Amino acid sequence: MNKYTRQTLVLLIGLTVIWQASGQRKIASYEQYIDQYNHLAAEQEKKYNIPASIKLAQAILESGAGRARLAREANNHFGIKCHRDWKGKKAYHDDDLRNECFRRYGSVKDSYEDHSRFLSERPRYAKLFTLNKKDYRGWAKGLQQCGYATDRAYANKLIKLIEDYELYLYDMGGKSGNKVSSAKKKASKKKLKKGSPQKKTPPANDGKRLLPRNVYKTYGLIYTVARYDDSFAQIADDLGFKTKDLARYNEVPEDFPLRQGDIIYLEKKKKKADMPNLFHQVQIGESMHSISQYYGIRVKSLYKLNRKEPDYVPVEGETLKLR
């Protein structure tokens, strides 16, 4: 599965990309895939409690947005191999070994359904189903830890796809698998339900009380901490900010889902980390954005400091410069 995933990524080189105002480039084939198959992901979420965002991100990554040979010829969008219990049709492709057996499906819908059963019926993935289905970061990290892929950047790649393409909007339930238009994305300010608590919090804390929320200072920056069922709109309302300004300070869309414990800056972040923070070792489930939030530095600055392109995904164990 993993070698085949690498092969599908090669297919994406040279594909048309669309540059957004934020500087993040969007791949047209990804957006087309999302528009075409988001309803299948939403259906599977309702049936199996697997986040639609995770389903879509895995499918895009494993199938090259439906363009890989295995997806085109066998309708296999998740790179699932035959295994001993498979009694259906088969397709053979080179992967970690030559001429490996992969599952062949009659339709893309069958592939989505079988992927859900594959995860829900195997004990090694059982702990994923104890997570909140809106906790896509926990799911991405868990998939890698449970051995779905050997790629050390697998979880981080899923998270980047979900956040770059706002796939988390399909986890909100009210979309009913319909296409989420750009206008709806911009207009949406719904509160999002609880995800997994963020383990890290800023080390410095000389906070003062500002009702109805606590406001703190670290690295010379003013911030607050997201609560259960929180949103940028609610924080802005409580503290007298504009929602768009808070989103801009934190370099995310206004409808970006917040988890309890997330750091929310109330002013623009810095271009480099404060001393003595010189380097950061990447962990499973981290993105360039989450790293930038922890140290109070701008995402673009983090890319620039490390001479990385916008499509770069941090790999577990890798060391990044912070100043």
Structure report:
- Strand 5 and strand 6 form a beta hairpin.
- This protein has 323 residues and is an alpha+beta fold.
- The strands form four sheets. Strands 5-6-7-8 form a four-stranded antiparallel beta sheet, with helices on one face. Strands 1-2 form a two-stranded antiparallel ribbon.
- The protein has three domains: 186 residues, Lysozyme; 58 residues, no CATH class; 43 residues, Membrane-bound Lytic Murein Transglycosylase D, Chain A.
- Helix 2 packs across helix 5 and helix 3 crosses helix 7.
- It is 37% helix and 11% strand.
β-strand amount: 5-15%
Q: Class of the largest domain in CATH?
A: Mainly Alpha
CATH architecture annotation name of the largest domain? Orthogonal Bundle
Overall average pLDDT: 83
Radius of gyration computed on alpha carbons: 20 Å
Total helices: the number is 12
How many domains is the backbone divided into? 3
Described by the principal axes of the CA atoms, the overall outline is globular
Order of helices and strands: HEEHHHEEHHHHEEEHHEEHHE
Cα-to-Cα separation, first versus last residue? 37 Å
| Strand order across the largest sheet | 5-6-7-8
Which structural class should the secondary elements be placed in?
alpha+beta
Major sheet attributes: 4 strands, antiparallel
**At the third CATH level, what is the topology name of the largest domain?**
Lysozyme
Uncertain regions spanning at least 5 consecutive residues: 3-23, 181-200, 203-210
Extended strand count: 10
